[in-house]
């Protein structure tokens, strides 16, 4: 009991420390000063009166939302003896699997060789593609793990060989209880055959109520059943605690100026990536300009560096010539510490459907990145990290579709090789946009990426009959090449709640 | 509350196994670590801190000093404390752990020796242990330093030297300085970690400036 109390006071102290530096603190102070003019504030009960004023004027709600958003992002307070690397990633062998510092510097060398003023994009190759990343994950090994030749009850038949804890279907059913068969869902119960009075109208009404209340926690609970298209942009902004203050717009304009003034090598990588992926996509090619605006600013945004406190990766660092080792002369390259890989622009593209104002679009993307997307391309043992998602996918497939899994393995088509690219991009570019947005609603609602692995397994279950007849990896890929006709929510519901186990 | 590190001597781990170690196939699942305190008198244990390495369950036995002439007996003070919720998977496998006095089953007033019994029932792991073991005892309640004599027995006030011409009144200056000092303390206390957001050095960000070694 003593331990829990001291843990709680530690969390409170850390959140207060974090919020003190934010805009909200200055605004609350200003409001408190201004409220002294009001007649109902009396000097004897100053503290209570000001608290009451905050409650009525809605400022308490804003503070609640800010605390809630900090809690969602905040990792659990660690043991005082634990070094900061332990907070980023507790398992030592996963820390060591990060790209070593020497290799990072080598990359920097290679970039400079290519020349900074060459606009010729043919010289650029994407830094790495999801395929290369999968190879790194396959080779992750725990040195303390029994990897004997004899088959035991725990031999990993899939590609991932790391014994992380993943949930099985009963636990997933508990986690995703709002996706159950008896609860209304957008994506299922709003189809044309179902009369809107049964579910849709009521759901929209509740959504509007949540928006007027401006409560982040309620919005997150609400969005688990899907968000109506008209309310989605505001709901996401509420859950991520983004509000358009003049300071935020000014920050974005400042980043834009940086784009114009400084030329970065990463820009060429971004141009190449956008041209290769989003511009070729039927749904997203219209947003090409928006994508440049967001991604070029993103690579110059140093506030993204703060997420490396809980990200297992580290930003590549270099020193001004002659000052090697001195921390004041250390710079991160690129300034936000994130090297874009092939397909990175697909994280932004679906958001362009929701937000038209560049500064708001930018803020939403940045918040989504530091909360969710960074886990999809860094090696960590977090339950939402890509390693756990891959292992969850393989375990689900192996446990509930053993014949299919065995057959695919026999023909040399390990299922993870096909589904990895879906999960790394959070299905962006593979699903139809409205279905993708329904899926991302649930990611926000449950604050976890595990639903990506469940959906991948559900897709395999859906196409199991066709897959059992293929005889090669290429044929298996062809069966699963086109996901654009799939409806996400029925697949998830059937896989989780309606499959006979 | 304050705590003081107690220097301890950790003996090598002893594996408990049934049968002959050389001929049996499996790895031991139980290890025993003895911790002695050779240079310290019997003390009151406050906290035990260590880093886990794939141990699933921990039992601690303690031998305490008794005032009478009866020989000290071993008593279990922590029984089957779970460090890894699922012994087959990585959860909790490399975590830092703290165990406090109030979690123990018995009083820890006069500790002579500790015995840690580690159990790992899963056959998947090649080895298991606990690392960086540190034992803490209760720190002193009040500082036991003695004040210097001039602080506890102040010299009687002397007559202040006469003011030099043209200088401001020292008591007024000191009160203003005190206010400024309070302001700086306030600013220092509300130290934020927000970044300023600049990434250039003196206005330029030339790649050629960076070193490659």
From TrEMBL, chain A:
Occurrences of domain Rab-GAP TBC (ranges): 226-447
Coiled-coil annotated spans: none
InterPro entries (alphabetical): Rab-GAP-TBC_dom, Rab-GAP_TBC_sf, TBC1D19
SMART domains according to UniProt: TBC
Domain of life, source organism: Eukaryota
The name this protein goes by in its record: TBC1 domain family member 19
Organism of derivation: Moschus moschiferus (Siberian musk deer)
Automatic annotation (TrEMBL), chain B:
InterPro entries referenced in this protein's UniProt entry, alphabetically: Nicolin-1
Name the record gives this protein: Nicolin 1, tubulin polyglutamylase complex subunit
Lineage top rank: taxon: Eukaryota
Gene Ontology annotations for the cellular component aspect, listed alphabetically: nucleoplasm
Gene that produces this protein: NICN1
């Amino acid at each position: 009991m003593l331990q829990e109390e001291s843990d709680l006071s530690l969390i409170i102290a850390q959140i207060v420390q974090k919020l003190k530096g934010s805009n909200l603190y200055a605004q609350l102070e200003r409001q408190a000063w201004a409220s002294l003019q009001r007649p109902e504030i009396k000097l004897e009960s100053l503290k209570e009166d000001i608290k009451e004023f905050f409650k009525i004027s809605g400022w308490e709600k804003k503070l609640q939302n800010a605390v809630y958003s900090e809690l969602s992002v905040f990792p659990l307070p660690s043991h005082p003896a634990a070094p900061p690397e332990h907070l980023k990633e507790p398992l030592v062998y996963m820390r060591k699997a990060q790209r070593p510092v020497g290799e990072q510097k080598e990359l920097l060398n290679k970039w400079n060789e290519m020349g900074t003023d060459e606009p010729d994009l043919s010289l650029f190759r994407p830094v790495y593609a999801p395929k290369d990343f999968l190879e790194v994950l396959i080779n992750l090994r725990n040195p303390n793990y029994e990897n004997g030749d004899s088959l035991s009850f725990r031999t990993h038949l899939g590609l991932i060989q790391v014994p992380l804890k993943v949930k099985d279907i009963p636990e997933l059913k508990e986690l995703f209880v709002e996706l159950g068969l008896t609860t209304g869902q957008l994506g299922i119960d709003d189809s044309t055959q179902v009369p809107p009075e049964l579910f849709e109208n009521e759901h929209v009404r509740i959504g509007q109520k949540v928006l007027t209340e401006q409560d982040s926690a309620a919005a997150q609970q609400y969005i688990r059943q899907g968000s109506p298209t008209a309310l989605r942009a505001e709901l996401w902004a509420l859950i991520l605690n983004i509000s358009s203050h003049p300071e935020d717009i000014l920050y974005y304009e400042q980043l834009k100026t940086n784009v114009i003034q400084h030329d970065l090598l990463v820009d060429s990588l971004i141009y190449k990536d956008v041209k290769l992926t989003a511009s070729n996509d039927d749904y997203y090619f219209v947003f090409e300009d928006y994508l440049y605006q967001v991604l070029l600013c993103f690579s110059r945004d140093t506030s993204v560096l703060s997420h490396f406190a809980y990200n297992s990766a580290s930003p590549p660092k270099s020193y001004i010539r002659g000052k090697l080792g001195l921390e004041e002369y250390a710079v991160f390259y690129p300034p936000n510490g994130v090297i874009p890989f092939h397909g990175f622009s697909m994280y932004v593209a679906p958001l362009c459907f929701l937000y038209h104002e560049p500064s708001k679009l930018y803020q939403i993307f940045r918040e989504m990145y530091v909360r969710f997307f960074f886990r999809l391309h860094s090696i960590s043992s977090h339950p939402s990290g890509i390693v756990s998602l891959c292992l969850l996918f393989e375990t689900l497939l192996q446990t509930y579709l053993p014949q299919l899994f065995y057959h695919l393995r026999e023909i040399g088509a390990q299922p993870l090789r096909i589904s990895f690219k879906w999960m790394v991009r959070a299905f962006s570019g593979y699903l139809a946009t409205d279905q993708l947005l329904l899926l991302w609603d649930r990611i926000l609602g449950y604050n976890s990426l595990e639903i990506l692995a469940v959906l991948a397994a559900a897709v395999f279950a859906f196409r199991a009959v066709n897959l059992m007849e293929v005889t090669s990896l290429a044929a298996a890929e062809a069966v699963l090449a086109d996901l654009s006709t799939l409806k996400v929510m029925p697949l998830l519901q059937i896989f989780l709640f309606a499959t006979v186990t | 509350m304050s705590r003081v590190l107690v220097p301890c001597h950790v003996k090598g781990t002893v594996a408990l196994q049934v049968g002959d170690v050389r001929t049996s196939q499996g790895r031991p699942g139980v290890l025993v670590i003895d911790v002695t305190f050779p240079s310290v008198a019997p003390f009151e244990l406050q906290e035990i801190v260590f880093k886990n390495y794939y141990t699933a369950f921990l039992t601690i036995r303690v031998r305490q000093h008794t005032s009478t002439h009866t020989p000290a007996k071993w008593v279990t003070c922590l029984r089957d404390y779970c460090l890894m919720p699922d012994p087959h998977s990585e959860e909790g496998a490399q975590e830092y752990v703290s165990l406090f006095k109030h979690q123990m089953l018995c009083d820890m007033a006069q500790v002579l020796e500790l015995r840690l019994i580690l159990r790992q029932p899963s056959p998947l792991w090649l080895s298991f242990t606990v690392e960086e073991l540190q034992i803490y005892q209760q720190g002193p309640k009040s500082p036991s330093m003695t004040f210097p004599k001039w602080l506890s027995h102040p010299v009687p006030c002397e007559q202040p030297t006469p003011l030099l011409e043209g200088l401001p009144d020292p008591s007024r200056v000191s009160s203003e300085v005190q206010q400024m000092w309070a302001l700086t303390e306030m600013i220092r206390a509300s130290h934020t970690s927000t970044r300023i957001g600049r990434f250039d050095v003196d206005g330029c960000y030339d790649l050629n400036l960076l070193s490659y070694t």
